[in-house]
Write a structure and sequence with these properties.
alpha+beta, tt1808, chain A, 6-stranded mixed beta sheet, two-stranded antiparallel sheet, 4 helices, globular
Length: 188
């Protein structure tokens, strides 16, 4: 017997309910998501991230070494720790510079600068995370494309994304909350 095709017209759509941030936090708190799992909550979905390669880890380390001492007393640097962007997203950027007065007993809700170091996640960082950070009002967002040696500097956040994205080459000066650096300088 030959199967017959049925029209999908008129059939209801399946609705997928997004996971809320408080539910995600409860899963972590109760050990249902392991601390060793590289997962982030973005737009209500659990996104699994790839392990970090040496170039990625090296850039995160170099950024931390440059920013943390320079910003003491003015701001705090968080390395691969959650920030709150909305009810359905709790990304863990590679670095986030947050105001010094943000409470330490919960994840910060404000960031002055967010930096993502991207090797296998360039598309995710340039499109989806850029929209999330812009809607949260993060004034400056960098995506460091490791392979192409380009820093995409996003400014002018709106509810729909950033109004300006400027690529910077390895030797172009970058301003990280008053700390001047270059991508090439971070590699040495």
């Amino acid at each position: 017997m030959t199967p017959t095709r049925r029209s999908l017209e008129g059939m209801p759509e399946v609705h997928v309910r997004p996971l809320r941030r408080r539910e995600y936090d409860a899963l972590i708190e109760h050990g249902l998501i392991g601390e060793d799992e590289r997962i982030q909550l973005l737009d209500g979905e659990l996104i699994e991230l790839s392990p970090q390669g040496a170039p990625h880890a090296g850039l995160v380390e170099a950024l931390n070494e440059r920013l943390m001492p320079a910003l003491v007393g003015r701001a705090r640097v968080r390395v691969q720790l959650p920030i709150v962007t909305d009810e359905y997203s709790e990304p863990e950027p590679d670095l986030a510079v947050i105001p010094a007065d943000e409470p330490r007993d919960r994840h910060p809700e404000r960031a002055l600068l967010v930096i993502e170091v991207a090797d296998s996640t360039v598309r995710l960082d340039l499109i989806r995370k850029a929209r999330i950070y812009a809607a949260a009002g993060v004034p400056t967002y960098w995506v460091i494309d490791v392979e192409r040696e380009v820093v995409h500097v996003h400014t002018g956040p709106t509810a729909d994304g950033y109004t300006t994205v400027v690529p910077h080459g390895p030797d172009d000066p970058l301003d990280a909350c008053g700390v001047e650096l270059t991508l090439a300088g971070l590699r040495h």
